[in-house]
Design brief:
The chain is mostly beta strands. The protein has one helix and eight strands, in the order βββββαβββ.
């Protein structure tokens, strides 16, 4: 798949997000690299924009490398936003298996359902930090 490749973090540990949750180290422990996760545009399941090439928990959070395909309109919009710097946020859809507390709620075991390129991430620090390649917008 040709397209725009990027790297960044979909989640950062030990920071309170806009929803009042804190993701703790180890929360993504069962996530296997190579696990098939869709790459979506703005969390819309009808707008798959490419593929997640790599996903793994590290010391900082949930590191993601993905490739955006320009074969669809959503992919072209996402690639254009990313290439111009207008869109840099990353996020993920998930189900909580184990948590504790309230305000903030500590998330300790999470199942990830998808990774999304977004305009407004729930965690302001969850961002794309590298873009490689050129998108074909034709």
């Amino acid at each position: 798949m040709s397209g725009l490749r990027f790297a960044g973090y979909a989640a950062i540990f030990d920071r309170i997000d806009k929803g009042g949750d804190i993701i703790r180290p180890g929360a993504f422990g069962d996530l296997a690299d190579g696990q098939s996760l869709p790459l979506l545009w703005q969390h819309d399941p009808h707008q798959q924009i490419g593929r997640v090439d790599h996903v793994r928990e590290d010391r900082r959070g949930l590191r993601v490398i993905g490739t955006i395909s320009t074969a669809t309109r959503a992919g072209r919009n996402a690639a254009a936003g990313l290439a111009s710097g207008a869109v840099q946020g990353l996020s993920f859809g998930y189900r909580v298996n184990r948590s504790s507390g309230q305000e903030p709620r500590e998330l300790m075991d999470i199942d990830v359902a998808e990774i999304s390129l977004v305009t407004f991430p729930m965690q302001p620090w969850a961002r794309v930090h590298r873009v490689d390649g050129q998108a074909d917008f034709s």
